[in-house]
Structures are given as C-alpha cells and as structure tokens.
Design goal:
Blueprint: H1 2-29, H2 35-38, E1 45-46, H3 64-72, E2 76-81, E3 87-93, H4 95-127, H5 133-157, H6 166-187
Antiparallel strand pairs: 1-2, 2-3
Helix pairs in contact: 1-4, 1-5, 4-5
Length: about 190
C-alpha cells in the first residue's frame, strides 16, 4: 500500500513539475505581456464626456468622423480632463488592442512550445523502458506531464484558433491520447 502511494505521488509530482517547466520555457522564449506596458495612464482619462456639466464650456468633443476613424484603428476616444474636472483634450487610444494582440501572440507561442515539449515527453514516456520500477514511474510522470502541457497549451490558445483549425488540432490530440492508451495497455 505504501509503495503504491509513493508510486502515484512520484508520478503526479513529476507530471505537475514537467507541465510547469514547459510553461516556464514559454516565458523564457516570449515574456508574457503586461497590461501596464501598453496602457500606462498618468492622468485621469475617461471614455466619454459628461455633457451635463454646465461649468465646462468651450470644448467640443470628438466628431463622428473622428470616432469612426479611431474605431477603424481598433481604438477608442479617451478624454483628458483638466484640474477643474472639465475635458481639455481627447485622443484615439489603441493600447488595449495592442495589448490584446501581444497577448494573443504570447498564447500562440505558448501553444506551439507546449505542444512540441509535450509531444517529446509523451514519446519519451511511451518508448523508454527500464527494469527498475522507480524509473518507470518517472517516465510515466513525464508522459502525463507532456499530456497536461499539451492540454493546457491548447485550452489557453483555443479561442484564438481559427474555426477550421480547431477540429484538426482536437482530432490530433484525441489520436495522441488513443495511441498513448493503446501503447500503455500493450506494456501491461
């Protein structure tokens, strides 16, 4: 009984650590974008003007054409307010769009890296053999960690995948899991 607990503990810990290792490699290759690096606000800005303020005269907001042009750039009009709380100027801010694009790129790189490392781990886990039982536990943990890395990498990038790509990626992963199951069953 104690030996079984040790076995499963080793397998689970190696699987979790290998998965974390894969994602740490992703961060080494491509640092995760931080929102503050794209959208750094020094002064209070707001998306709209409160036209009900009577004390704020003499400022014309963005025209419909400027709002449309900003929307085409994937931005939004933001107003800068002066010390008395009145709108003083405005600008087209695209920082959120730029941050989202950088995050999407990071998730794509994560998907690729975790898929490659996970596939290597699955292959190593499936085809490596040892006469020592503890080494087999280690290989099992690496294989399960590879499967977890592939799964989590896919889930994190899934919404960004093209609709025609999703079924093929999922089918490839289903086939991989079936192969792992068949190969594992043959070992026993």
């Amino acid at each position: 009984m104690i030996n079984q607990v040790k076995k499963y503990a080793v397998i689970i810990v190696i699987a979790v650590l290998f998965t974390l290792f894969c994602f740490s490699i992703v961060d080494v290759i491509d640092e995760k974008p931080q929102y503050e690096d794209f959208c750094n606000y020094d002064s209070p800005r707001h998306m709209g003007i409160d036209y009900g303020e009577d004390d704020c005269e003499g400022f014309d907001g963005a025209t419909e054409a400027e709002i449309d042009e900003c929307s085409q750039q994937n931005g939004r009009i933001e107003y800068n307010y002066n010390s008395s709380g009145c709108p003083a100027s405005y600008e087209c801010n695209t920082c959120s769009y730029l941050y989202n694009e950088a995050s999407k790129q990071h998730r794509f790189i994560g998907f690729i890296v975790t898929s490659i490392l996970g596939l290597i781990a699955v292959i190593v886990g499936l085809y490596s053999k040892s006469e020592k039982e503890v080494v087999e536990w280690i290989y099992s943990g690496i294989m399960i960690g590879g499967i977890l890395a592939i799964l989590i990498g896919t889930v994190s990038y899934f919404n960004d995948m093209g609709r025609f790509v999703k079924p093929f990626v999922l089918l490839a992963e289903i086939v991989l899991i079936i192969l792992v199951a068949l190969k594992t069953a043959k070992k026993k």
